[in-house]
Every structure is written in structure tokens, then in C-alpha cells.
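Input/output pair, single chain:
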Amino acid sequence: MSNATEIKLAAEWEDDERMNFMFSDFNENRDVNTTDWDSKMDFWTALVIKSCRDRGTVCVSLQELNKTFRRKEKSPLGLATVIQSMARCGKIQRESEFAANVDCGWLSWGVGLLLVKPLKWTFSTLLGSNQVPLEESFVVIELVKEKAAELLKVYRSSGSASRSILSFPELCTLSSDVCADESTLCMALLQLQRDKQVTVSLHEGEKIVKFCQAGQDNVSPVSDVDMGIYQLQRSEKLLGERVEKLGLEADKCKEEARTLLREGKKSQALRCLRGCKRVEKRADGLFANLESIRGILDRIAQSQTDKKVMQAYQAGVSALRLSLKDVTVERAESLVDQIQELCDTQDEVNQTISSGVTSADEDMDELEEELKSLLDESKPVSISSYPEVPTNGLRIPGEPSLRGADLLSSLPAVPYRRLDITDEQLEEELNQLTLTDSGFQQKKMTSPAKRLEPAQ
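Output:
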């Protein structure tokens, strides 16, 4: 079965007519049929990237692609053109070019970063040849960036995130689920080094990798302090493993001594017990050294924390000094005086506005008084113009009448008022009263007839 069957393009891969077109070579001149040329290039470009992602690798060669995409004993004829096009577009890059900007520490590792025939590709490119070396390895830029991000995420989520420096074997073990092989790990580290997230070096023949810590934008070079901390951490790990091993050995000696004692071999049991005591003594000594190293590491961590605190204090002092650069006591007092003066001015303005409103109220009261006086003058006759109500009691019928003088005195006073009416007006009112009386009599004569009308 072909390797291409693992690629999730089974429906299209089984179409013979479609695959015959895709397996054919590209035209030398793209302008002859740009649509077919571009569609074929897009198909193979996406397929190359997908095959590398499915295999978990970031590198590819023409020889591997010919094996991967072999179908019915045939390999695609245009893969070399696809590789050249992807290289021109920046989607892939030769391993030698990808590792060109690293330091000599990488070159001394000998992990296969610079593969065979790097100069052959250079000369072919300069001469304009369309041939691509079969064994030339290319890095897929999109995939190596993904692997670098995954590797950094795995490191920061692991228990080793507190350690800035890791050995290469430790990193291989840590990234075993992310990087399929050592070459993929190296490519990911190269990308991280380009992004200034890691730095690599050799220390006494040991490959070490320093990661950028949380809160830092870029990784710092490996310093003597970093190496001292790394040596202490390494010693801590070795002593911890040795103490654990001695503890297991002491337990084994105790169990052996119990077994010999049950068998009645007391002398041999005593020798085993003495050996157990020696092992425990060595373990106690190593444990004391381990505690000393841990104490030193704790102090170093505390000093680093104190250093960060001091840096924060220094930054705060600098910021405070900068913010108070133009601030003085005299200026502050001047500002307070100005504020007080403005407040006094505002109080005076408010008082002036309030007094104006009170004057308007007084004018309104005067207008209301004047309106009331006008209403009083418009009344026709006041109640005080009428005669007083008599206060004498009324005479009951049957009682003897009062005498003349008493009768006159009991009557109310005759009102005296000048009539504002002419003789012509009196005559006209008299005529109206006469007409009204005559009409009243006629109405009285005809009223019975009118009462009978509803009965009809």
C-alpha cells in the first residue's frame, strides 16, 4: 500500500483522470495556462505541508516526497518544480540556510543540521539549473514555527519551568511527545533561538539550553551565575538520586538481616545490620550535603527575588522623582492660595445672584398688592354702604302698638344717599314697570287654557 493512502485525500487520490493530470510535469512556461499551472502548484504545496504535519516532522526532501506520493508505481514528475516554487515563496528553506545565523556551539554538536551537498544546490541555483538534489533537506517554515511554540509551551507547563537551564538529554525527554526525533527538536530550538527565546551553548562538553523566563522579552546570555546555579541544581539532583538509592540499599540490608535471623544465622545477620548502619550513615551525610545545597539554592532564589524588589523600588523612585520634578512647596502654596481666591470670588458671585432674586420677589409682592386694590375699587357697592340691621325686637301681633315717639325711635335711620339718576331715566323705568304689570295680568288670564293643552 502506498504511503499516500495515509493522507486524508482518498476520494481525490483514487480519481485516475485527476491524478494523471497532477502527476504530469509542469509546463516550462507558466503563461501558457496559468489556471492549470496554479491549481496544480496549490494542490502539491498543500499536500507537502499536510504530509509533513501528519508525520510530525518539519523537514522534507525530494527523495522522501517521491516515496510518500508514489501511486501505482509512479511518482509525481513536478515535485522538483514544487520545491523550487515553495523555496522562492519562502515557505521552505534549506537546512544549511536555516542554521546559517547560529553560533558555533550548534555546529559543534554534530546533530545533522548541515547535510550533504550544500554547495551543489548553490551552484545549481547560480547556473539556473532546474534540478534539485534528491537528498537536500528543506525546513518547512510554517511547521517549524508551530513546533517551536509547542516546545516552549511544554517547557513552561512542566516542573522544570523554575530552572532556566536544561541539559539537552533532559530536553529530549521533556519534548518526546512534541518532537518526533532529535532533528525536529534541533529545528525547533533554532527557531526559538531566532525568536530570542532560547540560547544554546556547550559547557565542559555538555549541551545545555537556556530558556527565556516569565516576565522577560528576550533570553539573556549564559552567565557565570547561571552556570553556578546549574551546577548546584545538577548536584542537588545527583545527591537526591544517591540518597534515594542508599535508602533502598539500607532497606534491603535490614530485610536480609531479618531473613538471616529467622534462619538462625545470627552472626551473618549482625554483619548485614552493620552494613546497613554504614549505608545509613553515608545516606545521612549525603542528605546533610543535599540540605546544604538546597539551602544555598533557596538563598539564591531569595536574592533574585530581593534583586527584583530592589529594581522595582529603584524604578518607583525614578518615576516618583520624575513626576515631582516641577513640584515645590512654594508652588503648592501658591496654587492653594489661588484656589482659595477663586472660591471667594465664586461665593461673592453667588451672593450677588441671590440678592437679585430677592429684589424680584419684593417687586412681585408690590404688584400683587396693587392688583388687590384695583379689585376692591371695581366693586359697585360695598356692604358698609347699606343701613344697619335693626336690633329692636319685632312686635308680636295682638300686642299694643308703640307710641309715636317710641315708634319713630325704633325705626332704623333713613339712609341718605344721593341718587345718581336723572328724571328721564326714572320715567323710562316707570313705563317699563307699567308694561310689565299689564303683561302679568294678561298672562294670568290665559294660564288656565294653557294648563288644559297637555290633556289634549
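DSSP finds 16 helices and six strands in the chain. The first helix runs from residue 10 to 13.
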